[in-house]
């Protein structure tokens, strides 16, 4: 369970995308002061800044002065973050933490004038969704114990699950998260499209999806695998492949997943 912070931090958000849009109000609700929100476009920065009582900044990074803050949170796409970080007009000695699962702490090596850290929320963020921050794992890393303590104190005001995760571990965690969330969502999208083609409602799969996820969270997932692939039902697998002929990409994905399931089952101890 999240706890109140004895010290309210002044936090500037660099980025106004999905992570920042969820993080800004959560920080404010936890008692912190969001001093500024920057985005390349005013259309992105202004609504979020107005919602949390912050200054809105927009435009190329070298063009805007940064308000004073105890922490600058870099909430940007992985490919954009290093370039923006390189040109940020940050105060000397500023504490800056990125929110990425994929970027290493070493991304800050190019800026020896600042202190670097990681404040990675392990969650998927989409517009219109409400996040229960108390349940979100917050994965932290910093270059020294003092900065880690600042990030830890902040994290505990949002979440009951705060974990120190080194860059190498975080990369593996991020890959696992892509399989668990992004790839799963893509497969559900394919299933939804196939049901629509058959004239069937998407909610028919809801009980199956819930039971599958619940079972996988309560048991080793490989140990509770079901379906025609693990049973090696050749006639059913062949029929499914024929049904997917109009979607060669999905057909190939079905074949790859079938092979993976069967190989994993073969490797399972008796």
**CATH homologous superfamily annotation of the largest domain:** NAD(P)-binding Rossmann-like Domain
SSE class = alpha/beta
Q: How many domains make up the 3D coordinates?
A: 3
The CATH architecture of the largest domain comes to: 3-Layer(aba) Sandwich
**Shape, per Cα inertia axes:** elongated
Strand % is: 5-15%
Under the CATH scheme, which class of the largest domain? Alpha Beta
Q: Count of DSSP E strands?
A: 8
Sheet with the most strands: spatial strand order: 3-2-1-4-5-6-7-8
Helical proportion, percent range: 40-55%
The number of distinct helices, counting runs of at least 4 residues, comes to 9
Radius of gyration: 22 Å
Biggest β-sheet: count, sense, barrel?
8 strands, mixed
- Uncertain runs are 1-5
For this structure, the CATH topology of the largest domain is: Rossmann fold
Order of SSEs, N→C? Answer: EHEHEEHEEEHEHHHHH
Report the mean per-residue pLDDT as an integer: 94
First-residue to last-residue Cα separation? 41 Å
Structure description:
Helix content is 45%, strand content 14%. The protein is of the alpha/beta class. The chain has an eight-stranded mixed β-sheet with strand order 3-2-1-4-5-6-7-8, covered by helices on one side. Helix 8 packs antiparallel against helix 9. The chain is elongated. The N terminus is likely disordered.
Descriptive keywords:
270 residues; alpha/beta; Rossmann fold; N-(1-d-carboxylethyl)-l-norvaline Dehydrogenase, domain 2; 3 domains; 8-stranded mixed beta sheet; 9 helices; 8 strands; elongated; disordered N terminus
């Amino acid at each position: 369970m999240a706890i109140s912070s004895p010290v309210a931090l002044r936090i500037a958000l660099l980025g106004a995308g999905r992570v920042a849009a969820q993080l800004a109000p959560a920080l404010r609700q936890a008692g912190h002061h969001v001093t500024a929100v920057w985005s390349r476009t005013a259309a992105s920065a202004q609504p979020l800044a107005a919602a949390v009582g912050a200054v809105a900044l927009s435009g190329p990074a070298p063009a805007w002065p940064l308000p004073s803050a105890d922490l600058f949170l870099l909430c940007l796409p992985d490919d954009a973050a290093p370039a923006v970080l390189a040109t940020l007009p940050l105060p000397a000695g500023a504490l800056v933490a990125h929110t990425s699962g994929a970027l290493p702490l070493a991304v800050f090596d190019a800026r020896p004038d600042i202190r670097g850290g990681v404040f990675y929320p392990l969650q998927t963020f989409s517009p219109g969704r409400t996040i229960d921050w108390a349940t979100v794992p917050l994965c932290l890393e910093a270059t020294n114990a003092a900065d880690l303590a600042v990030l830890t104190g902040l994290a505990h005001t949002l979440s009951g699950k705060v974990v120190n995760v080194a860059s190498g571990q975080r990369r593996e965690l991020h890959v696992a998260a892509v399989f668990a969330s992004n790839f799963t969502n893509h497969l559900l999208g394919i299933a939804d499209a196939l049901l629509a083609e058959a004239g069937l409602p998407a909610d028919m799969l809801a009980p199956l999806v819930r039971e599958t996820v619940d079972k996988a969270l309560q048991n080793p997932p490989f140990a509770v695998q079901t379906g025609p692939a693990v049973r090696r039902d050749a006639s059913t697998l062949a029929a499914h492949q024929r049904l997917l002929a109009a979607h060669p990409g999905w057909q190939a994905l079905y074949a790859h997943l079938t092979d993976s399931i069967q190989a994993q089952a073969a490797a399972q101890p008796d």
